[in-house]
Amino acid sequence: MTTANRPLGLRARLDAIFDEPRSLRALGLLRIFVGPIVLLHLVPFLEDMAAGHYYADGFYSPWFAWFPEVPKNLYFALLVATLPAALLLTAGLFTRFAKVYCWGFVTWNYFLCQTHFHNNRTFLLVVLTTLLLTPCGNVLSLDAWRARRRGAPLPEVAPLWAMYLLRFEALAVYLGSGGSKLFEPDWRAGIVTWDRVLRYRHLLEESIAPTWFVELLSEQSFHAAFAKIAIATEIFIALGLAFRRTRYTAAFVAFWFHVVIGVALAVQVFSYLAVAALLIWATPTVRDRTLAIDERTPQGKRLARRIRRLDWLARFELVPDEGPPRLTERDGSAASAGSTADGSATSAGSAADETVHVGGAAVARAYLRLPLLFPFVAPFALPGLRRLVVARLDRRWRS
What is the pLDDT of residue 89? Predict the structure, then answer.
């Protein structure tokens, strides 16, 4: 084994994770989504403000006796000021100020009263802290655009130790949630979820959910099975996200898991935040795959336009070429001979390491790496479905 191919030791791997500059793209995209989530999280407080209510008007219990408080009018002013700060955070304009203010107000408001505690708000604090500790405004932001206009572009890479800590926190949330429910009899029996649906049924009836779906969610027998599935799902997500080989599957399951509980249960902003936080599991590199497309054809032009619009994580380097699309994976390898069942070509030297996907296989794998399409096309990566999808896409490119 050569020195270049020798596996890194634990210390070297940790140094690479915590010290090596990596792409900020995923955190920039997460920042864009977190702004509206902060606004949504503030809705109950804004409603109280509109009614003239203040947390200290009645009984309240601060977390710490020494914690600073302000008069009602000043509290309302600080609350309202969070609205433009959250919008600035999403736009990436004056990002340092915006993320400091959002983090500061959300954290301060959280600790003003113990009744402000909710698990979803705790996770929001963790995510905002991650954004606070990283230069997430250097990419996908108006700040970055202004810096380029001035001829001094902002660095788009940085050490991502805070993001890796957020990964650990996300795993702890799933594993802690699923593990604690596993040992709670009422949770295993479905009583907890059934009670929650009954208490918030009026919200379901006002939503777009069909009547049969509302009735199904109101049945105790449904929750007896659903609770066990939910517990197993949370534990699977935690274990699946931890390993690269199962990460795509776990991310797909996590997306639809949060969609279901977001509709069926009153989890406030947690589902939105958890889905957005799936971005941190993307490998923090950009343009690590080359997609060759013949844009002289109508099909090639449409495909290139779709990739440019939906490649939010900048996965692909588009290059001109003749013939069907060709996707070269992140190791930079290319094929010279041979063909696999799903349309991939392999070189004679090392089939495992040198693979390029051609035609329908290239298109299918490209779609799998587009964040907006991933939740809908991920099942097509299963072996049986993959052959059917690739064959159909191949016929399109031949026609």
Answer: 97
DSSP 325: -
CA 76/CA 182 separation, integer angstroms: 41
Q: CA 183 from chain center: how many Å? A: 28
For 257-287, the pLDDT digits (tens) are 888 877 766 667 888 999 999 999 998 989 9
Q: In the block, which residue shows the tokens 């710490």?
A: 64
CA atoms within 13 A on the CB side of 216: 9
Contact 128, 34 (CB under 8 A): yes
* Residue 122 shares a structural domain with residue 43: yes
Listed residue (279, 367, 387, 285) closest to 327, CA to CA = 367
| SS3 assignment, position 359 | coil
Residues 68, 92, single domain; the answer is yes
Residue 220: per-residue pLDDT: 85
Q: Are 98 and 89 in contact (CB under 8 A)?
A: yes
Residues 252, 140: one domain? no
Residue finishing a domain among 244, 265, 281: 281
pLDDT of residue 344: 45
Token couple for 124: 């929001």
CA distances from 196 to 69, 179, 218, 227, 291 (A): 33, 20, 10, 12, 48
Domain coverage including residue 123: 11-159
Cβ partners under 8 Å of residue 311, min gap 6: 369, 370
Please check whether residue 164 lies inside any domain of the structure. Answer: no
DSSP-derived secondary structure for 327-351: EE-TT-----B---TTSEEE-SS-T
- Angle at which helix 95-112 crosses helix 72-91, to 10 degrees, equals 140
Contacts with 291 (C-beta within 8 Å, 6 or more apart), sequence order: 307, 316, 317, 318, 319, 325, 326, 327, 328, 362, 366
The number of folded domains in the chain is: 3
Nearest 5°: CA angle at 356, between 2 and 389?
140
pLDDT digits (tens, 9 = 90+) for 337-386: 333 334 444 333 343 344 788 888 888 889 989 999 999 988 887 777 77
Residue showing tokens 């606070």: 132
d(CA 348, CA 358): 17
